[in-house]
Design brief:
The structure holds two protein chains of two kinds. Chain A is an alpha/beta fold. Chain A folds into four domains: about 110 residues, Glutaredoxin (3-Layer(aba) Sandwich); about 220 residues, Rossmann fold, CATH 3.40.50; about 90 residues, Ubiquitin-like (UB roll) (Roll), CATH 3.10.20; about 110 residues, NADH-ubiquinone oxidoreductase 51kDa subunit, iron-sulphur binding domain (de novo design (two linked rop proteins), Up-down Bundle), CATH 1.20.1440. Chain A has a five-stranded mixed β-sheet with strand order 2-1-3-4-5. The radius of gyration of chain A is 24 Å and the shape is globular. Chain B folds into two domains: about 55 residues, no CATH class; about 90 residues, Glutaredoxin. Chain B has a four-stranded mixed β-sheet with strand order 2-1-3-4, covered by helices on one side. In chain B, helix 1 packs antiparallel against helix 2. About 5% of the residues of chain B have low confidence. Classes of the chains: A alpha/beta, B alpha+beta. Chains A and B meet through helix 1, helix 2, helix 11, strand 12 and strand 16 of A and helix 2, helix 4, helix 5 and strand 4 of B.
Chain lengths: ~550, ~170
């Protein structure tokens, strides 16, 4: 196939292979190596750009090449398929291997992508995450440039007016928090470092079913850096930390490299963008504690201690890291900021419904045919996400339950799938949007088993500071086991009453959302799937909000904060 | 275990002046020694002007830190909800019997330490596992029992020095 060597010497054919772990986990590195070797054998100069992932994970490894009008996609490409792709003309300019069985056509025209509203994830899968030049060439630093021309208070106003709320799950208005930190006085130095304000990124993405933070860090890390630098200017902070879970070694490596490049380019450091203002940024590696996703536990961990939750008040905005005013936001919250500054608050606010403005990167996960990242404005329904985007289950069996919002989120039965996804609408049905993770279970799932797991997980991960969480979770496992073992209805009913009572105690008595929200999956499983607990369907308790649920408790949830 | 105190001091020296430097120091100690040895705790405590109890508390609080060295490789099988929905519990059962160990234990030949993880961020590529840490870390998705066995077999034959090519942090640079 020497005839394919149409590319002129010196202008290598450019191919794109993702480096996101969802692509690596199914062999993207082997595919990239095979492509390079195959091209070399054919004498065709080739440049393989390692991008982030588009977030269409069932198509990974998704190989792309430049086409006449945008990029053409091929996937899922196995190492074995590489030779046939090269034979079919992948290295030829223009249409290339468009007739190959794995050809998907123009990537941007894939219905899964076309139907999305990609604002935060616009560059995802497009750029090389380890190239600051590529970032700059794709609208990078535009928001920071504008922020440098504004007074700090004007930056805060822009974020306030965008309607952005904390994307970690708490949904607290981001601008209000920024304002609080900006106005908070520095506190006298204790034994810690000299007084200064801090910006902390919560990248402790521990919720099962979520990976949008990871995708940003692996696929578009400069966007997060830009958002944090803007935050630093807005609140007057000179030091930032990105606290990343140890389960994300690839994200840690990419963020570290991106910070190095951004510092070398002058976007971080003593003189941000030539403004004379300083903002230093550093990656800190977490150590496998789920509760450290709760912001006060995270701060304890950053200070070098066990991740024990702190009582609030005082808010971290006033007394945070090393006792100083500290802005803690989730990755996706920071990542939305550069665009809000670049395109204006109104642009972002025009997406969404009610008080839920802008977009949320939903993450379709678990037993789903087309899993991946779906960024859409608030107001979409779960049915649209799971059925239209997800295409139902991977197993081909009926969907039984969908858990939204991570391990502390409720299980939603089909009757609730048409509720528009909006923070307030979900609170009203006893569910949480959280960080936008959506885990699909087919009809082989046992919801009593999943409820037991929720309690067990809480027992494993509880920091142990408050009794309802530390003891309640272990008692919860025992009570659910007794329900399963009960032969007689009246003893079973007694245990169910005990479980509800226990959940009530955890909801109201826990210090943070770890214990305070574990009842959400438990009670929703009990309410909507009583038959899995050996109960008659008629014996369900009140559907909807868990009795006495505190909406504000959706804040400060571990795994993700605001 | 005889501890190389000079090497330990060198690791600690890089972090003792950093604000909140204990966790980064423990990560580096574990990277250098395979674990945070009990014998190192007094020295770490002295370097950070903490009590031994405080350092012990931190080491034992976090799942990531270990007090004895693992096998040549660590396999972390995800057991969180998304992976459960795709058979992660059955995969763990398979791993237990295939390796003859429980989570937290190391195979008799010292090749693999089996552990569980709660979410690797591969929730649409379930069931997933993470092999090893840091620069050598390597991910696998949609893991079948056969793929698990093949991975373990490759670890046993390849030896400690070279990890499989697929999905390493280094490999994709």
């Amino acid at each position: 196939m020497n005839a394919v060597a149409t590319a002129a010497a010196g202008t290598p054919r450019r191919l794109y292979v993702p480096r996101d772990v969802a692509a690596l986990a199914v062999g993207a590195d082997t595919v990239a190596t095979a492509l390079a070797a195959g091209a070399k054998r054919r004498g065709v100069p080739v440049e393989i750009v390692r991008t982030g992932s588009r977030g269409l994970f069932w198509l990974e490894p998704l190989v792309e090449c430049d086409g006449p009008a945008g990029r053409l996609g091929f996937g899922p490409v196995t190492p074995e398929a590489v030779e046939s792709l090269l034979d079919a003309g992948l290295l030829e300019a223009g249409e290339g291997a468009v007739s190959h069985a794995l050809a998907l056509g123009p990537v941007e025209d894939l219905p899964y992508l076309r139907a999305q509203q990609r604002l935060t994830f616009a560059r995802m899968g497009v750029v090389d995450p380890r190239s600051i030049a590529d970032y700059a060439a794709h609208d990078g630093w535009t928001g920071l440039r504008r922020a440098l021309a504004l007074a700090p208070a004007e930056i805060v106003t822009e974020v306030l007016e965008s309607g952005l709320r904390g994307r970690g799950g708490a949904a607290f208005p981001t601008g209000v928090k920024w304002q609080t930190v900006a106005q908070a006085p520095l506190r006298p130095a204790g034994s810690g470092p000299a007084p200064r304000r801090y910006v902390v990124c919560n990248a402790d993405e521990g919720d099962s079913g979520t990976f949008s933070d990871r995708m940003v860090m692996e696929g578009d890390p400069f966007m997060l850096i830009e958002g944090m630098a803007i935050a630093g200017l807005a609140v007057g902070a000179t030091q930032g930390y990105v606290y990343i879970r140890s389960e994300y070694p690839h994200a840690i490596a990419t963020m570290t490299e991106a910070i190095r490049q951004a510092t070398a380019a002058g976007w971080l450091g003593e003189d941000v963008g030539g403004s004379g203002r300083a903002f230093h940024l550093e990656v800190r590696k977490a150590a496998g504690s789920y509760v450290c996703g709760e912001e006060t536990a995270l701060l304890e961990s950053l200070e070098g201690r066990r991740g024990l939750v702190r009582a609030k008040p005082p808010l971290p905005a006033l007394v945070g890291l090393f006792g100083q005013p500290t802005l803690v936001n989730n990755v996706i919250s920071f990542a939305a900021v550069p665009m809000i500054l670049a395109r204006g608050a109104a642009f972002y606010r025009d997406f969404g419904v009610g008080r839920s403005r802008g977009t949320l990167p939903f993450q379709l996960a678990g037993n789903v045919r087309r899993g991946g990242l779906v960024e859409l404005a608030f107001g979409v329904t779960l049915r649209q996400l799971v059925e239209d985007f997800g295409g139902g289950t991977a197993s081909g069996r009926p969907v039984k339950a969908v858990q939204v919002g991570g391990p502390l989120g409720a299980y939603l039965p089909p009757s609730q799938w048409d509720v528009p996804i909006d923070y307030e609408e979900y609170t009203a049905i006893g569910a949480v949007v959280g960080h936008g993770g959506i885990v699909v279970h087919d009809d082989t799932a046992n919801l009593a088993g999943l409820a037991r797991y929720a309690m067990e997980f809480c027992a494993i991960e509880s920091c142990g500071k408050c009794t309802p969480c530390r003891i309640g979770s272990t008692r919860g496992v025992e009570v659910i086991d007794r329900i399963a073992a009960s032969a007689q209805a009246h003893s079973r009913d007694g245990q169910v009453a005990l479980l509800r009572d226990l959940c009530d105690t955890m909801l109201h008595g826990s210090l943070c959302a770890m214990g305070g929200m574990t009842p959400y999956p438990v009670l929703s499983a009990l309410d909507h799937y009583p038959e899995d607990f050996g109960l008659p369907a008629a014996a369900t308790g009140p559907a909807g909000a868990p009795a006495g649920a505190r909406p504000e408790q959706t804040g400060a949830r571990p795994g993700q904060t605001v | 275990m005889t501890l190389d105190l000079a090497a330990l001091d060198q690791v600690l020296e890089a972090h003792r002046e950093r604000p909140g430097g204990l966790l980064p120091a423990l990560h580096d100690v574990q990277a250098s020694f395979g674990c945070v040895p009990k014998e190192a705790v007094p020295r770490i405590a002295a370097a950070f002007n903490l009590s031994r109890a405080e350092v012990h508390g931190v080491v034992t609080y976090y799942h990531h830190f270990r007090q004895s060295p693992p096998g040549r490789h660590v396999i972390r099988l995800c057991q969180a909800e998304a992976c459960q929905s795709m058979g992660a519990q059955a995969l763990l059962d398979h791993a237990r019997s295939a390796l003859g160990v429980e989570p937290g234990q190391t195979t008799a030949d010292g090749t693999v330490t089996l552990e569980v993880a709660y979410c690797l961020g591969l929730c649409a590529s379930s069931p997933a596992l993470l092999l090893d840490d840091d620069e050598a870390a390597c991910v696998h998705g949609r893991v079948t029992p056969a793929a698990f066995d093949a991975l373990v077999a490759s670890l046993r034959t390849v030896g400690a020095a070279s990890a499989p090519a697929a999905g390493t942090v280094e490999g994709s640079r």
